[in-house]
Design goal:
The chain is of the alpha+beta class and 1007 residues long. The protein has 15 helices and 63 strands. A hairpin with a 3-residue loop joins strand 6 and strand 7.
Length: 1007
């Protein structure tokens, strides 16, 4: 009797973080045991396809999908082609909606065909034997070809191994494989000369948490010659990129009788990688754009398994924000759930003990700019409402088939529509139904990658064997939550009111159109960090641009070092698509440092966290525009160097650095700091060190030797870059769009398109968004800001622009829209609060010239809103006082940092959170000479009565300022007094609340 039990197909290195390397499924050798396509016998055609029959009854079908994609499908004699929709990795509707045409010309020796576009594909099919060649029609360049010894074959037990093999690749051809192995691991970006098998992994039935988690199952590869191949099968696949012996791919049914794999693939023409992403995701589905808040900071409660509840979350977020840190997304791990509140024994429902008032919490979260993910653990499915065990009409597999699966009490079969409907109904009834008014913006789907122990012949509810269907397991799940659950507009669904954020451990190609994933319970080591960087990049190659990784690694329950915390959860994670520090270490067992929350870390780690928080959040217009581009075209947010530099060999070897959009080069520090890191700064551009504004000339002949520093990700900006920004805010919900800032880096011309929408709903899909074009002309030192094209609910009606020119030798007078030379001020804040609300600022140490415009009315679909350029005059004499921000002063405990009311300068304001007189704010100021100075305090008072403060200089009260009502908390005013200051650099100016209520304080101006 044949042994169909699962064998462990991968060998895990004993080195921590090493890649699981496949040992089976290589493209077979071709010989007598392999059944190959024989000679031409006949063919039929229609407008899109040609179907050729061989002399032995085999069939080969070639179909155009648009102008740049052809599908190749071959079957054995007597076998029928699978239906187009058997595998849903390709969007089912695309089989007809993509259209296309194929022009066929028959000659004595060949059948030649081409797609309609002049730059499309030309295919040559040789008749004796049937062998394929693919060419770029415009250039004539050969992409891939078969020969007499290499082509489509069938072999193996029960003829369950199918393969396509091409002749040895041309000199210099390099291969990239989308997706990744278990736990997001990739040993190198360039897979030339390797064999890659990345499938649903085998489970270790003896362990609760098997190591073989989170595969990125994307059977798609790209060639630097400008084409890609997507293998359309959910049987296990293997890709062999050994150019000396040919290259190709295979699928196996592991000898299981019945339905066998078929050769079915799409060859996609480029020639640029950007075009391949666009066409691949047109075929398999565009990545699903999450809410804007998802690109903010995520934090979890996993380190606090005995204390986290709804009150804990309120307190933790409030303390975190009060210290000035940003926060957007709350990730609940186990404890919110009814039952035990632990990994096991709890189920998808709010605990009446730990979460007695979820509706009240949702109201608090909305007020405080917080969105929420709730987690579902597969192992607890049997505890959830209306669960049915067993195969249909039950929701699981046959009990005999899941004996080797961990926690086999609950093994949902997602191929069964009723199972998918059941889990969605639980999500709806227990959290997502708007009538409940509960907090839920995202779903974390855990433990769904542990079913590898099911034997290959096992039948799934859809009739597929496990050998065929296991790689679709995650796709079926996401289809149920996305297309069938979240998306419909009718009763029992969310519809377009809110975008989903759904993530599972592992992914299948096509899943990106429904939801997302993360890379599982990874170790906390630098080796793992390096592998995750590559995994993030290869995920982006395969339609998953929103890479989601445990920041700092899930680990083994131990505390990580201060340096490691600063380098990974802070510095690198903040410059990845999703910023989500997470760990298995718990505070009860390991102490406060086990937590990933910054306030539980040391002083320097907190400072680093605040610095990167400000960087990420101010860059949100840049980051969110990249996310929109990803959703529209499949372009990764974190772009492997090969995307921008496809023809350069260095791009294939420098796979621990990447482009963060078109302008920023990120090279994460993967050591404790102090080592020399070799960074490639591509030739043809000038690159600015982001942290120091120092220029470097790019080179392809040698790397840049960068001495790393703990907590600092090497970050470079390309000359000509325009980095759009918002004023810093602590939540995506707090951003003011009435001020758009941009940092411009001199040395080349540049453009950037800022894409904005309401940040929450699906309305952008129907055109409710705007695009603002920014253009920099280097020779003229000119920035032109266009009026937005398009609009959406909540779009600003007026805007102020701040333009910062980096890399200038000297300041010059500047003007806006041809007006007079702007006055010069000591700081941007001084210009903002001046009577004109506009001006220029020169920072002599950084060589940055800032221009602040006044508010300009927005004209939707208009022309140019603002042209910022030199006036031809010299830079004016500097006027205005010196601004000291409240958030950088010493705050008594009754004051907290806040950003929820816009209109402040700097990075926030001091919010009075007390209930009695006495608390105050103390600034340390400088006076170059003794004498009288005007002291002005900028404040907001949204109340109805005065909220006075006493002002003291070096302990002596000089005045009491009334702080009269300003009408709203986002309306700011200034009150002043005069005082005699000594000549000193350490003068203390203190403002003290004199009643039970205090105002919000933005800044002190000394002038």
């Amino acid at each position: 009797m044949k042994d169909y039990s699962i064998k462990r197909r991968t060998v895990l290195s004993t080195a921590v973080g090493a890649l699981a390397v496949s040992t089976v499924n290589a493209v077979p050798a071709f010989g007598a045991s392999a059944d190959q396509l024989t000679d031409y016998a006949s063919h039929t055609t229609d407008s899109r396809s040609i179907t050729v029959t061989s002399t032995t009854g085999q069939q080969l079908r070639i179909t155009a999908y648009g102008d740049q994609i052809v599908r190749v499908h071959a079957v054995r004699s007597g076998e029928s082609f699978f239906s187009d929709t058997r595998y849903e990795m390709v969007v089912p509707a695309n089989h007809t909606s993509m259209g296309g045409s194929l022009t066929v010309t028959v000659t004595t020796d060949t059948i030649e065909m081409h797609t309609a576009a002049a730059d499309g594909l030309r295919i040559v099919l040789h008749r004796k034997p049937l062998r394929l060649e693919f060419y770029n029609r415009a250039t004539g360049a050969l992409l891939a070809k078969e020969d007499a010894t290499r082509g489509i074959t069938w072999s193996g037990t029960n003829s369950t191994v199918v393969a396509e093999a091409f002749v040895p690749s041309s000199s210099g051809e390099r291969f990239l494989k989308a997706g990744h192995g278990i736990l997001g691991r990739v040993p190198s970006l360039d897979r030339t000369g390797t064999t890659v098998s990345e499938n649903y992994a085998d489970a270790n039935a003896a362990a609760h948490n098997p190591q073989e988690q989170a595969p990125g199952i994307v059977p798609f590869y790209l060639s630097n010659l400008g084409y890609g191949v997507f293998f359309n099968t959910t049987f296990d696949t293997t890709f062999t990129f050994n150019s000396s012996n040919g290259y190709g791919f295979s699928a196996t049914g592991y000898g299981v009788s019945g339905i066998r794999p078929q050769v079915d693939y799409f060859l996609i023409n480029g020639p640029q990688f950007t075009q391949l992403f666009d066409r691949y995701t047109q075929l398999t589905g565009r990545p699903r754009l999450p809410q804007r808040s998802i690109f903010g900071l995520h934090m979890t409660d996993h380190s606090f398994p005995d204390t986290s509840d709804e009150n804990w979350w309120r307190q933790k977020i409030t303390q975190h924000r009060a210290a000035g840190f940003p926060f957007d997304h709350q990730v609940n791990d186990n404890r919110w759930r009814a039952g035990s509140g632990a990994w096991s024994g709890s189920y998808f429902e709010f605990s009446s003990v730990r979460w007695p008032d979820p509706a009240g919490y949702a109201k608090w979260a909305a007020t405080n700019g917080v969105t929420v993910t709730l987690d579902y653990n597969r192992n607890n499915s049997d505890l959830m409402e209306n669960w049915k065990a067993g195969p249909p009409p039950g929701y699981s597999f046959a009990s005999a088939d899941i004996s080797s699966v961990p926690q086999n009490n609950a093994v949902p079969d997602w191929s069964y529509p009723a199972t998918r409907a059941w889990v969605w109904k639980v999500f709806w009834d227990k959290a997502l139904n708007p009538s409940l008014k509960y907090p839920c913006d995202g779903l974390w789907i855990d433990e769904t990658d542990e079913m590898g122990g099911i034997p290959y012949p096992a039948k799934m509810a859809d009739g597929h064997t496990w050998a065929e269907g296991r790689n679709a397991y995650l796709l079926n799940l996401h289809k149920g939550i996305g297309e069938e659950g979240w998306d419909p507009a009718g009763s029992g669904h969310i519809g377009s009111a809110k975008r989903p954020w759904t993530w599972s451990r592992g992914a299948t190609a096509g899943q990106q159109r429904y939801g997302h994933y993360w890379t599982g319970d990874i170790p906390s080591t630098y080796d793992e960090m390096r592998s995750q960087i590559r995994g993030m990049l290869t995920a982006g190659l395969g339609g998953f641009p929103f890479a989601n990784i445990d920041g700092g690694g899930y680990g083994n329950g131990s505390v990580i070092s201060d340096a490691f915390y600063r380098n990974w959860p802070v510095a690198w994670s903040s410059l990845a698509p999703i910023w989500r520090p997470h760990t298995s270490a718990t505070v009860p067992s390991k102490g406060t440092l086990a937590s990933r929350w910054p306030l539980d870390q040391g002083t320097q780690a907190q400072a680093d966290f605040a610095r990167y928080g400000r960087l990420r959040y101010t860059l949100m217009p840049y980051i969110y525009s990249l996310a929109h581009q990803s959703a529209a075209t499949g372009m990764p947010m974190a772009r492997a160097m090969v995307i921008d530099y496809q023809s350069r060999s260095q791009a294939y070897t420098h796979d621990l650095q990447y482009m963060w959009g078109p302008s920023l080069l990120v090279a994460p520090c993967t050591n404790d700091g102090g080592a020399v890191q070799q960074i490639w700064l591509p030739a043809g551009s000038t690159w600015y060190n982001f942290w120091a504004d120092i220029k470097h000339t790019g080179s392809d002949s040698g790397d840049f030797a960068y001495t790393t520093r703990t907590g600092e990700t090497p970050l470079f900006v390309k000359a000509g870059a325009i980095l759009p920004k918002y004023p810093y805010a602590q939540s995506a919900a707090y951003f003011t769009k009435q001020q758009l800032e941009m940092d411009v880096y001199a040395g080349a011309d540049g453009t950037f398109s800022v894409i904005e929408d309401d940040g929450v709903t699906e309305s952008y899909r129907s055109g409710a968004q705007s695009t603002t074009q920014l253009t920099y002309t280097d020779a003229a030192t000119r920035v032109a800001v266009a009026h937005p094209q398009g609009t959406y609910a909540g779009a600003p009606t007026s805007r102020r622009y701040i333009v910062r020119f980096h890399g200038l030798a000297n300041p010059v007078g500047m003007r806006v829209n041809g007006g007079a030379t702007l006055p010069a001020f000591t700081s941007e804040a001084a210009a903002l609060i001046s009577s004109g609300g506009a001006g220029s600022v020169w920072n002599a140490s950084t060589k940055v010239l800032s221009v602040v415009t006044s508010q300009i009315a927005v004209v939707a679909n208009g022309g140019t809103a603002a042209t910022v350029e030199p006036s031809g005059a010299a830079f004016p004499a500097v006027s205005g006082g010196t601004v000291y921000e409240a958030e950088t002063a010493h705050l008594d405990s009754a004051f907290i940092i806040d950003t929820s009311h816009p209109g402040y300068t700097g990075t926030g304001y001091a919010d009075f959170n007390g209930s009695s007189s006495g608390p105050g704010i103390s600034w340390t100021v400088t006076a170059a000479a003794a004498g009288k100075k005007q002291l002005s305090i900028r404040y907001a008072n949204g109340g109805t009565t005065n909220r006075p403060m006493a002002v003291a200089v070096n302990g002596t009260t000089v005045a009491t300022l009334t702080m009269a009502p300003t009408g709203a908390w986002d309306s700011w005013a200034t009150v002043s007094c005069t005082a005699t200051l000594p000549q000193s650099t350490t003068i203390t100016v203190r403002a003290t609340v004199t009643t039970a209520n205090g105002a919000n304080i933005d800044s002190l101006i000394v002038g």
